[in-house]
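I have a small job for you when you get a moment. Would you make up a two-line entry for one protein for me to read? No commentary is needed, just the two lines. Write everything out right here, beneath this request.
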Amino acid sequence: MTDHQLKPGQPKPGLIPWPPLIYVAAIAISIALGLFYPLPWIGGLFGDILFAAGWVALFGVVALWFTAIRTMIRAKTALHPNAVPDHLVTSGPFAVSRNPIYLANTLLLIGVALISGIVWFLPLAIIAAFATQKMAIEGEEKVLTAKFGKKYRDYAKRVRRWI
């Protein structure tokens, strides 16, 4: 949907879909740093437990992506991060997190860190989440507030931004 649904003077979505770019950059930087400046990783039983936790995290990523996208499709709303949404989605994973797809992207980096032992994924996951919030989420929230008003403000009071 286009931004003509917003009234003049209301905030409009950005032009660049930042979240995918941010997370792809975080992955690339983590891999490069892991190759050129590897950091020590935890071994032994605790390392094995972290490895298993990484796989659990990746299963969570798949579940979040699948259920969030399915919920958005069922609601017949835009999937593109820069589109003005047709409907406010508050069910499924959106009942727990206002940003389940961005949460899944962050969890992806954490899961890969735990599986691969590339420590750099951990700080880059935090940096990517912070950058996504500043470059995308805060603007998206302005658009949602402008479009849905009290309905969005009430939802934002009930459901946390991340988890």
Observations:
- The radius of gyration is 18 Å.
